[in-house]
Amino acid sequence: MTGTWSEDSLWQLRARRYAGDGAAPAVVLSGRPLAEVLQQVGDLVGSAAAERVPGAAEVAERCIAALDERGWEGDEELARQLAAALGRGPVSILRPLAVDLEELSGLLEGDPVFAGGRIDLTTGDCWPQQIVFDGQEERAEDTDSDRWLPVWCEGSREGYRDMELFIATVGDAGFAESLEIAVTGRAAFRRFRDVLARREDELHRFHLFAEERQRGRARAWLAGRGYHPAARRR
Fold first, then answer.
1. What are the φ and ψ backbone dihedral angles of 181, each rounded to 5 degrees?
2. 221 vs 22: CA distance, rounded Å
3. Which DSSP string do the residues of 112-168 spell out, in sequence order?
4. What pTM was estimated for this model as a whole?
5. Is residue 118 within 8 Å of residue 148, measured between CB atoms?
């Protein structure tokens, strides 16, 4: 193993994912633990495996095994997508859409005052509700159901559950207790992050943990509407 995911290695991963770099599975993932980034890399790995990029099939198999073992929301959908890319199982009936799951998660779970919006089905772009119309008169094409997929904010309940589940993984009993106290009562999110900031290693681990779960929920939401995220080509 080359170690866990540092900020630098995550930056490399995200840059390659953004660029649709098919070599990323072999170059960036080699020797690193997959469990922390499965939802981040899954679509790129699937595309690379389908294109027979050297080393991609092996990484896809590792991802499928890890997804099956973990079983978080959205993991089953991703495992099926990867299996289809390897030529196993039925062909997916979900339509590919080049949507950024992190952006979609922001629409689904952001501040209820500002979150929600829609997805442009022609591009995969996510448009937050507050800038959809930008004060302009609504045009006919803005309401075209063949172009837009509405996204309603689902609130912060799942985000709170993420904090609870993360606390259960903290090995330091004293620090875990401090986090449990922080999430009790009002302003739980702010207090949780204030306490977490005392431990840089745990803060970094939580960011990975929360992003994986958020992206998985966004993937499951998208599948329920008949789509799966595709790696965006640039």
1. -65, -40
2. 26
3. TTT--EEEETTT--EEEGGGTSTTSPPPGGGG-TTTEEEE----SHHHHHHHHHHHT
4. 0.86
5. yes
How does pLDDT run across 25-66, given as a tens digit for each residue?
Answer: 655 666 677 888 999 888 888 888 888 888 889 889 999 999
Burial of 54 (0-12, 13-18, 19+ CB in 10 A): exposed
User: What are the extents of the domains in the chain?
Assistant: 7-92, 95-229
Task: Give the Å distances, CA to CA, from 15 to 20, 22, 111, 167.
Answer: 9, 12, 27, 30
A 10 A CB-CB count for 192 gives 25
Alpha helices by DSSP H, the chain: 7-19, 24-28, 38-50, 56-70, 75-85, 101-109, 157-167, 173-182, 188-196, 200-224
- In this predicted model, what pLDDT tens digit does every residue of 171-200 receive, in sequence order? 999 999 999 999 999 899 999 999 999 999
State whether the Cα torsion 105-111-112-117 is positive or negative. negative
